[in-house]
Amino acid sequence: MKNLIQILIFTILSVFTLSCKKNINYSKSNLTFSSDTVLFDTIFTTIGSTTKRFRIYNNDNSKIKIEEIQLMGGVDSPFRINIDGEPGVFFTDIEINKKDSMFAFVEVTLEVNNVSNPLVISDSIRFKTNGTNQYVNLDVWGQDAYFHANEIVGDFDPWLNDKPHVIYGTAAVGFPGVDSNLTLTIPPGTQIYGHKNATLFVYKSTLIVQGQLNNEVVFQGDRLESFYDDISGQWRGIWLSQAKNCDIDYAVIKNGAIGLQVDTTSSVNTLTLKNSIIDNNDFYNFFLVAGPTVTVENCVFGDAGIISAFCFAGGNATFTNCNFTNYWTGSRGGPSFAIKNWFEGQNGIIYEKDVTLNMYNSVVYGNAQDEFIIDSIANGTALFDVNLSYCLLKKEEIYNYSYLSNVIWNQDPLFINTQIKDFHVESGSPLIDAGSSLTSTALSIEGVSRGGTPDIGAYEF
Predict the structure, then answer these.
(1) Main-chain dihedrals φ then ψ at residue 182, nearest 5 degrees
(2) In this predicted model, what pLDDT tens digit does every residue of 33-56 receive, in sequence order?
(3) Model pTM score
C-alpha cells in the first residue's frame, strides 16, 4: 500500500511539472554578422595565420536557434573554425539568447601549391536558421615560397628571385666552427622572410646582396597581414660573424630584433654596406661589435628600441652620407648613434678596444634629447681615432672635442614627414649644401647626382 501511494504521488508531481513547463518560442528572424567576409592577407604555405574572429548576432527579442553551422569545405578545408569555444566543421542546434551574440573564430593554413604568384583560396561558413541559409565568406591570399629550415645555404644552391625565401631557425652561410669560405649571392628583387627567431647567419664566409634602385632586396618577418607591417621583433635578423668581403647594396632590413649585426672581423674588409635602409628593429638596427671593418655609404638607420647604430668594443668603421634618424614611438634605451670602446668583464676588469671611426656628411637626429653619444675612458690606453666632419648632430650637452669639425648642432633637419619615414627635406633645411665634396658620395641613395656642394645625409634635395 505504501509503495502504491509513493507511485501515485510521483505520477501526480510529474504530470504537474510537465503541465507547468512552457514551450520555447524561438525567434523566426535571421542572423546578422559583424562581417560577411573574413579576409586573410597574403600568408605562406604551411604557416598558420593569425586568428580572426567575427560575431554572430541575434537582434530579436526572443531566443534564436541555429539549426546548422557548417564549414562548407569540411575536413579538407585549409580553414579551421571555432564556434563559441568549440572547434569543428559541423554544429547543430546552437542557441543565442535574445539581444545577444557569440563569437566565431577562423584560422587558415595552406598546403604547398607550387605556384609562384599569389592566389585566392575561398571557402564559406553556412548558417541555417528557420530553414534559411546564410553564408560568411572566407578568403585567403596564399603564396608558395622557398623554405630554409636550419640548413647550410650558399651558391652551391643558388637563391632565385622568382618567389620568396622563408627562413626557419637558422639559414647559415658557412659551417659553425669551420672556415668554410662559402658565399651566398642574393639577386635583385628577392624577398626574404624570417620566421619567429629566425637568423641569416654568415660565419667565416661571404654574403653578397645585389639589390638595385627600385628593385631592392627586402628582409622582414614572415607575417604578411597588414597588422604586422610595423611590428618589430618578428625575426632575429642578419648576423655576420667573422665574415669576410661581404657586400650589401640596396637592401631593406626591417622588423627584427637586431637588423644587421657584424662582429669579430677575420679579414681586412668585413662589410661594404651601401644604399640600404635598416629600420624598426627591437634592439639595434646596426650593431658593430668586437672589431669588424666596415664601410657604409648612403644608408638610413631608422627607428630602433635601443640604439639605431651602435659601435661597441672596437672596430674600424667609415660612414659617409648616412641618416641616423630614430623616432621610435615607445620608450627606448639609447640614442640614434653611439660609440663605446670599453666593457666590463665578468671579473670586474675594464677592457678597452681600439676603435677607428670616421663619419662624413651625415645626420644624427630623432625624438630624444641626446641622439649622439660617445662613451670612452678618459686617458685610456686603447687607440681612439675618431673623426666627424660636416655632420648635423643632436645632443643636449654639446661635445667640445677636437675631432668634431664643421658640426651643426641641434638644428631641426626639416624632414618631410618622420611619421611615415620620409626623410627627404623641406626647402630651408640646414642639411642642404652643408656637406663637403671632398668626403661625399657621388650619388645619393636615389641615384641623384650630388653635384657642386653636396647635402648632408643619404638624400639630395
Answers:
(1) -85, 165
(2) 999 999 988 777 778 888 999 999
(3) 0.84
